Amino acid sequence: MTVSVRVAEGEADLELVRAVRREVFVVEQNVPEELEYDEYDATSVHVLAVDADGGALGTGRLIFGDEALKLTGGVEGRVLLGRLAVLAAARGTGLGVELVRAIEAAGRERGGVEVELHAQVQALGFYERLGYVAEGAVYEDAGIPHRTMTRVL
What we know:
Order of helices and strands: EHHEEHEHEHEE
CATH superfamily: Gcn5-related N-acetyltransferase (GNAT)
CATH topology: Aminopeptidase
Largest sheet: 7 strands, mixed
CATH class: Alpha Beta
Number of helices: 5
């Protein structure tokens, strides 16, 4: 399967981003739709993975700048990786790793020196394999246990 990972541009790409997030978070994980989409979507960098036919397979977003400062407790140079989602048919292919690395690169391009993410507890091992370190206690977000993780870029 030929896959390309790129920064989403234009409304058509953003529709694909929303469709992946809807399938993974709203349908599979029962996250209320009103919690899935937020005010940060408009200012975030969205990364999109598509197959050779242009069908969406995965996505993730990067929050940077003033919004990241607010959400990470004012840590200078820290960007926030979030909403990482891969459709069930593309899981286990390495696509999640490609998406994380693309988001990290976008963060570096925007002056980030460290990444923070809020991982679902069941995904901690995935992020640990990519160099992320868990910190703090487990907490609930949208009814799902999470833990904050960071990685120096």
